[in-house]
Amino acid sequence: MKNVLLRLCLCIGGWFGLLCSAHAGLIIDTGEPPEPGYGGALIGSNHGNYQYVAGKINFASAYQINSIDTHLKFYEPYFASGGAFSIVLYNDDNVSGPGSLVYSAGGGYMPADSQGAWYGISGLDWLVEAGSYWIAFEAQDSFINAVMSYTAQPAATEYAYNINFWGYNGYTTDVSGSPFSLRIDANAVSEVPEPGSLMLLLVALLTLLSAYGFRRNASIC
Question: Where do the domains of the chain lie, and which CATH numbers do they carry?
Answer without folding.
Answer: 28-192 (2.60.120)
